[in-house]
């Protein structure tokens, strides 16, 4: 189901401009490379418009935002919009501080996003305009379970209708939805929550996949989420602890084939 | 001896706010996770007070300090003090530049610390108010040996009496002391000095352990130091070079049990 | 041929001050350690002159430059010049934005460099004063092949004559040249391009090797390039994907002997 997506990634690799956090930035760069794209990190307001112009897509991740980089995010986002480049938003910790919540509001007002990806607490905050995310991880009270899965998918669809962006909620089970259709993606392993940056790395993979498949944003996003989860399962089987899990995750992605993903994908969709 | 400490870490995991350097921040985040806590990195002065409020403990590490982040350190430290959260100071490179030495003086004046951790040259600088640390590693002239071990432990106890903080001196042999009692910890491997960030990672482990054991700061700190050293020994036995040492170090920590640490600990204490 | 160089690295290890990007900084620090030096990262203008004074050599890498760090680069570079410390320039992405191109021009005007290292597109930009580097990777149109190899080496020699610096062009085949002589270095593996930071890590190795061999800048630089390529070959043979390639690269460097490099080196030189 995602074979075409991966073939396009190989045929027309994306150059992904990332304005992201300094915690996981190295993993993001290596994951973009492993998944077939090329990364460039640049966050000074004097150059972000020029840099984003030579790229295919843009990631805006507010993981360690500060006054200086927020301005660069807005400038780069607007320029990417003018050029029709897909822009991915990761509202890390939205709801954990008013600076984060307000920055996300400002970004949504000034920039059109192709994809918004977060955990359930972050997406709830984006949807409701306020929240109480307990750090950068989702609140347990918010956890997506089999019982409330379609309720969460419905929120994703409604946020998509509001913003025009494909909305991704990652967790034990992942959701990717546009206004009309939701994918439920069941690949992955709980141990992935024990390393930092799986979400940020996924942002980069999504940006690469969507950049190479600009007419199929929802499918490309779902393929990226699925690829990440599938690589996590394989990495889990090889690892001896959390740091080798991270290494194998990137290793497995770097040799993933369209065929293999086709066989390994655990995807359900509903209109 | 440290069993209770580790059980509390599991029962009541800490959320650790880190204002740390951009060199080792990813390893710190992954090590906090591996040792049972959750990390959040945030360093903008507009949000650090709010972020630290939702956390259990705070790490202030001046490894790549700059004018912007020093203000954030002071604000976060003061707020953590108001809330009674343990605050850990890592005076990286104190004595190597006057900016570092003066920043440490300011932090000690404006913030109360629960734990101060550094190498012997850094701790000497903190104790004496000036120093000549040759970079971020300890001076060979300062090296702690079996001969001057109790002299170093005595300095740690006196600095603890002055500051109210548990003082940790890491090196070939580690010391953790409050005003009344010093632990000498002999776990670890010399090869750990060949990777960057073992000290910074330890800051995060201490913050997690102390956050879950706020009534036993000295014991929790000693347990963290011991756990780090013990994991270093196991990692050394598995590794093929310095980068795999780092990977195994985090891997081993991610599966460390209270029982295993109990059997592996090499600890001596003296009043 | 490089045995003496490596012996000097062991006898007189360098302390390397790095003002580098936040993407690959951890790998740079660990690679400096693995190759026999000690790293210190500091980029605030209030302390860079003092920090560089206690070091042996300085790396200036503009990978994620911003207004704040550019000033620190100039200050540190000037101080290192006054003290006669070797200074290494990595003009990352020169030609990809005018900020990068202009910053490189300013640095070349205000600081004397011992070594300039970049990919072919970056070096062309430095040589010609303008360019159109497509991100942080070289343009395919610029690729160095067996056909245009001596033409590229000639450009390196001419840029060396202009600047006084040894010029390194890295790619499928590597070139290190001063005004009089060029080394062609054929070690390495194409898979090294699939991880971020091999160039930045090489900057650190060069700074360490040159710091310990200040009277033989060209040979020390060529030895560093050769060591990096040779370690890449060995790492390629051990790895299962891109992330383990990175780990093995640092692992292999951490146990590299002068003898082994002597046997593995694939070097040609021409006047």
TrEMBL record, chains A, B, C:
Gene3D superfamilies listed in its UniProt record: 3.40.1190.20
Cofactor: Mg(2+)
Keyword ATP-binding: yes
Keyword Transferase belongs to the record: yes
Pathway: Cofactor biosynthesis; thiamine diphosphate biosynthesis; 4-methyl-5-(2-phosphoethyl)-thiazole from 5-(2-hydroxyethyl)-4-methylthiazole: step 1/1
Residues that bind substrate: 41, 197
Pfam families registered for this protein in UniProt: HK
EC number: 2.7.1.50
GO molecular function, one term: hydroxyethylthiazole kinase activity
Keywords: ATP-binding, Kinase, Magnesium, Metal-binding, Nucleotide-binding, Thiamine biosynthesis, Transferase
Catalytic activity, reaction form: 5-(2-hydroxyethyl)-4-methylthiazole + ATP = 4-methyl-5-(2-phosphooxyethyl)-thiazole + ADP + H(+)
Residues reported in the UniProt entry to bind ATP: 117, 170
Family: Belongs to the Thz kinase family.
Matching HAMAP family: Thz_kinase
Role description: Catalyzes the phosphorylation of the hydroxyl group of 4-methyl-5-beta-hydroxyethylthiazole (THZ).
Identification of the protein by name: Hydroxyethylthiazole kinase
């Amino acid at each position: 189901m995602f074979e075409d997506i991966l073939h396009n990634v190989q045929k027309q690799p994306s150059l992904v401009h990332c304005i992201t956090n300094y915690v996981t930035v190295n993993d993001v760069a290596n994951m973009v490379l492993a998944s077939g794209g090329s990364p460039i990190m640049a966050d000074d307001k004097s150059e972000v418009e020029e840099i984003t112009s030579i790229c295919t897509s843009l990631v805006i991740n507010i993981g360690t935002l500060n006054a200086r980089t927020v301005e660069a995010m807005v400038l780069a986002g607007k320029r990417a919009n003018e050029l029709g480049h897909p822009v991915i938003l990761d509202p890390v910790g939205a709801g954990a501080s008013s600076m984060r919540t307000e920055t996300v509001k400002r970004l949504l007002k000034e920039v059109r996003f192709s994809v918004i990806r977060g955990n359930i607490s972050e997406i709830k905050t984006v949807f409701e305009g306020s929240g109480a995310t307990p750090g950068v991880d989702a609140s347990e009270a918010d956890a997506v379970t089999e019982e409330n899965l379609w309720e969460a998918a419905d929120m994703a669809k409604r946020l998509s209708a509001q913003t025009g962006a494909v909305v991704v909620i990652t967790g034990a089970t992942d959701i990717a939805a546009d206004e009309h259709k939701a994918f439920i993606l069941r690949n992955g392993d709980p141990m992935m929550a024990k390393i930092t940056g799986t979400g940020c790395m996924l942002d980069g993979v999504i940006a690469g996949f969507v950049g190479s498949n600009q007419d199929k944003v929802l499918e490309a996003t779902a393929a990226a989420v699925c690829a990440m989860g599938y690589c996590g399962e394989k990495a889990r089987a090889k690892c001896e602890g959390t740091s080798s899990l991270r290494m194998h995750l990137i290793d497995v992605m770097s040799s993933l084939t369209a065929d293999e993903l086709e066989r390994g994908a655990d995807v359900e969709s509903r209109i």
